[in-house]
């Protein structure tokens, strides 16, 4: 039985575990818990452990025993699904994903992928790197079959589909969060909970940075609460603060976070120390600023409005990065996030809504002085070479002084940051940043249309944006660029001008592209809708955590089309940087791996990638399958199975009407689904080929037999020696290369 009393005897040292939950970037540790541990140490709280359960839980799934169990479950489940005469849409999607992963030799491929990520030589061989990324992404598809099929988006989680993380009814339903978290349940039970028990912790803090971590964190907390009822549990992190900020009825907040004793809302350093000091002195959990106590404690404190406090960040010590398990991450080098500022010095963009802001787009602007940053960097540079300044934006004047100071001291670091494209920058200043170790920057250019930039209040000119991007690029700094389409009053031509801008300047930026505008309720646009020609603002029906708003306008870019815009625009946006991976891999903006590749290859990084994604094969090259064949004959119409594309279409139609898809209305929506397959004849006997990226190809038997020739590795010359159809097989060989069905055979280390 759990005690509701606030007074617990026996809390001596207040031994604390700070936990980072799945599912998130596995290439490096996040710095939020390092910052908290460093701050608490100043007040004498040194007995704090950081548990990165994001990487721990995933590595647990790739142990030989767990791989075997997962694949055994999938094989058994596949047989059950294939025996169904009329599978429901979710069962069809489950079968679709099961066929994608069935037959893949994960037991051999996953250890090879981990070695590639951690080995410097293999990491920078982009052919090997591509194979490693596709292997672990396919494994995430396999893991999703223990939860909701296709629930993962790489190392993130779909926020809506079979559930909706912005619907408090879905997130308070332990059956739903339990299914979502099922891929990691064995880890929770067999590794995490025993470790917490043997660790003797009095307090567990769970930091949720991204909303994709929310269901896993909630399920994790429930496991901890059931196994260790005496332990205090607190939640914190950006996603928790956003949930508090956007939930329409605050009384529903703790229906979601019921396993917690308290949640830290906003900046957490002082709040954590207040909790630690209370527990140390056997006092009740405090109703201090930024601490939202569970309602069960209101009998002690009484209900009151939550007071929000912003920290004096200049008093912060260097974060405790040494507490992270660096040897576990999927990277060849350590990569740290370091935050020398909070808020944004510009703080005027009309679309922005970040942090616990009130009357401005972001939280208050605060920045370390130069001496403080250099003091920290001297300490960090001893151990860490790759540093990303993880801030909203850094002021140009400080960056320039910082670059000069780094050069003067001779610190050997590589760094990146997000900056504004100010007129302040000159070729000489860009060159100074490069000399100090700047390998890449990220910039929000937002739009290539001046009218839209003026509405955004970006404070920039299109022609000047082009000049500044070129200056950074010519200095040898990789420019990662971010923008969006769909801003209120934007026409298709306006949006295409952003595409044109990026295409015209394609030589001067590396990674990035154009996203889609989303209106949030704290943005200036939402507060002054008439100014932007929009009306009928309301939360999406079904999302009581109203982080985004639906609205209408007279000439809406998305009217009568997809929520992503007309086909002409979506295709143009997709063409900007094709065949690149997204976060957290090379190709994602501001990722560890992108920084490593920028450092190694400079602005030629795209040439390196494009040169290795196209198999440079000749007639004597030994090629092998870039994927696997599924043995057995299939008569099922694979192209008719309900899959992710069909689910996305349901989401698309609903959201265009201002309705969110949740677990409550999904059954009805799925019942309305009819397969659109009039152009497809009923397939005859077919077999399946699964490309390494998980794409499923139902092929006729002759095509499968052609591909089978390459299972052991084969050259075109050897193939033609066995063939009477030289011209046809040569064309088919070229077709298989261009469609990535074949790849250069990876030689054993002794032969390489």
TrEMBL record:
Cofactors required: [4Fe-4S] cluster
Q: Does the keyword DNA-binding apply?
A: no
In this chain the Radical SAM core domain maps to: 330-567
Q: Does the keyword Iron-sulfur apply?
A: yes
Q: Which UniProt keywords apply?
A: Iron, Iron-sulfur, Metal-binding, S-adenosyl-L-methionine
Residues forming the B12-binding domain are: 142-286
Q: What PROSITE patterns does the database record attribute to this sequence?
A: B12_BINDING (PS51332), RADICAL_SAM (PS51918)
Name of the protein in question: Radical SAM protein
The organism of origin for this protein: Paenibacillus phytohabitans
